Amino acid sequence: MAESTKPPPPPPLQNQDQPKEIGLPGPVPAGARDPAIDYITSKPYRPSTQRIIIDNVDIKNKCFTVSTDISVFLLDPSLSEIRLNLGQYCLLPKEDLTFDGKVTINGIEVEYERTNMAISGFPENQPKSLENFQNFIENIEAKRRYEYKLVLKIPSSLEIKQGQRVMLHIDTKVVNPKKGIHYVLNYTAEGELDQSSHFYTYKASFESSTHEWLPCFDNFNMLAVFDIIIKLPDTLAAVASGEHTDTIEKGDGTVEYVFRQLVPTSAANIGFTIGVFQQFMHPEMQDVMFLCPIGFLPMLKHTVAHCGRVFEFFEELLSSRFPFSCFHVIFVYNLPDEFVAYSGFSILSVDLLYHKKIIDVVQSTRKQIVNAIASQFFGCFVQPYRYRELWLVRSLARFITFLYIERSFGQCEYTFEFYTAMKEVCDYENRFGKICLSPRTRDDIQESFANSSLAGMTSPKQFDMFVKKGELVLRILHNKLGKESFMKVLHRLIYVATHFGQLQRQQMHWYYLTLTVETFFQTVLNVTGREVPSLIDQWIYGGGHAHLEVHYQVNRKRNIIEVEIKQEAKKGRQIYTGPLTVSVQEIDGSYNHIIQIDKEYVKEDIQCHSKGRNKKKKKVLISVGEEVEIDFSRFDPEATVLWVRIDPEMLLIREVNLSQPLIHHEYTVLYERDVCAQLNAIEVFKQTSTIQTIDVLNEVLANEKLFYQ
């Protein structure tokens, strides 16, 4: 039976007569269908618990055995088979005769087969066009969901009833995996394995790689609770997802590590690491443990010393406790990504560790560690319903990471992060076409190289752009709602997931631990009472960015600024309509003006406030509320406008080409305290520069009070 991927509808609007501070979904109106019921019935079967036993670990030969028991809730009485995900390096009992294993349902041995996807070439009878090729790729991607499926035949002797639970038992042997598990093998001079050797799981694709070593239902919305038992020689140690509940030492030189993940999660959030590690329990957090290879402990202690403040910040920001009972962070060699986040467990690169005398990597290292912690809230706890929502939870994690950056490193560093992200997104769209975060039809992605709905049609670079554009959209929403209201929305998501995650026997309510674009904005409406249709249509369902060509001149007789704004429809762009903020720095201070953009060419007059300049006046009040002393010796004695900024708060996803005299750009770099305006002015210097420009840059470099990167 084909598996439906259509999500249930978003939760109904909360009854206005109910108190909102409870933070739970409101009562379902009469005649409406509970989305949690739609969630539980959207597939013919769902897992509820999974027990995993890892044994016979042979690091040198890169193999181990996995035995798993999965409790499955059957919803279709006509079922004849159950399909699981299984990687090609997981060998079944009849595929490898070197180990004893079984595949059973309720203790009855069953027939099973592996269904590999056969990929054929582009049909010769079809014209070679971009549209036909796209159809061909999408068909392959649709089939890819069934790649390396393990099909268990339900025996006729087993009577199936709706709502029945059955127990699946599968034994496999993982041999020399090429994906999903990475081995670090170091040898001594005698040819023996060095104690620094270890191996760990990682995510080799955007979706998940857990099926590469574990038979499971490897879909984002197939949640379960997990028990993990890892049997090892007593010379090795293990860390895995969940709470470390027990360590059982056997008398035969072996040890069992027991982990329990009681918060419902997807198989994508299950992983482990095995090797020899040194441990460090953070003195401020008894439930947080850090591990590293032998020899790195002093650097580890120094690198993670700040982490106590990170947890405090997020718990205060989200008005919620850390979602898992404990947290393990392990540093390993040769990690293929910046970090890998599993439920209650994160893996980072040992290259991040630094000595206390090193200062130039402090910011970059802290950003990655903070992002790994933030991903526990959004990504591992609040999870995407499908792949197409993965960018949303990743962007939420990155956004609250940037809020910590603002608290720790200052407003300029926070602004610089978004400035960099916006520049990268706009440059990418100019080269490769629009980024549509949530396409509704094929027309929405007609001009795009990527489809955010299909992992197989997305490259790592494209997915990174999805996440960065998502960060920008969340910042726009944050500024539109206000920080307090926006954080109430995030608190609501965490609170609802916390409440329903504790109801382990009411499996249909696990739906509230997942997130879609629709339910996210439904939560925005429920919490704040505000709808943001223009934001959704422009930046979520629509692709591209605004490109504004801005020119102005000062009419001294009328004491106004005549502003012209042009837009041109080109690759990767959209024609923006809506409000645009223009900030004018005058002699008497900084003033913001709103221009309404309703077409491709707009001409608007802005009234100036300054009547004339007192030549003796040296101090000017700038936009940040600070008075700065300005040298007017090189400036026009009759001028009252010092410089202009377009969309100073970055409330749009845009690129701006502002045409103004070079002296205005020079004064922007020297005296403005908005780092984005300064960087934009420096970009102008690359095209047009003078001896005065060089003097300006030298003066900026000599000023220790200015932000730098």
Model description:
This protein is an alpha+beta fold. Helix content is 28%, strand content 27%. Strands 1, 2, 4, 5, 6, 9, 12, 14 and 15 form a nine-stranded mixed beta sheet that branches. A hairpin with a 5-residue loop joins strand 29 and strand 30 (627-629). Mean pLDDT is 88; it is low at 1-5 and 11-22.
Keywords for this structure?
Immunoglobulin-like; 709 residues; nucleus; transcription; metallopeptidase activity; globular; 3 domains; alpha+beta; 9-stranded mixed beta sheet; 5-stranded mixed beta sheet; 14 helices; Ig-like_TAF2; Transcription initiation factor TFIID subunit 2
Amount of beta strand: 25-35%
Mean model confidence by pLDDT: 88
CATH class categorisation of the largest domain:
Mainly Beta
Flag low-confidence runs. 1-5, 11-22
What is the count of DSSP helices, taking H or I runs of 4+ residues?
Answer: 14
The major pleated sheet works out as: 9 strands, mixed
Rg calculated over all Cα atoms: 29 Å
Fraction of residues in helices?
25-40%
Which structural class best describes the helix and strand composition?
alpha+beta
Quaternary structure of the protein: single chain
Number of individual domains: 3
- Counting DSSP E segments of at least 2 residues, the number of strands comes to 32
Categorize the overall geometry. Answer: globular
End-to-end span in angstroms? 55 Å
CATH topology term of the largest domain: Immunoglobulin-like
The CATH homologous superfamily of the largest domain is called tricorn interacting facor f3 domain
The CATH architecture of the largest domain can be given as: Sandwich
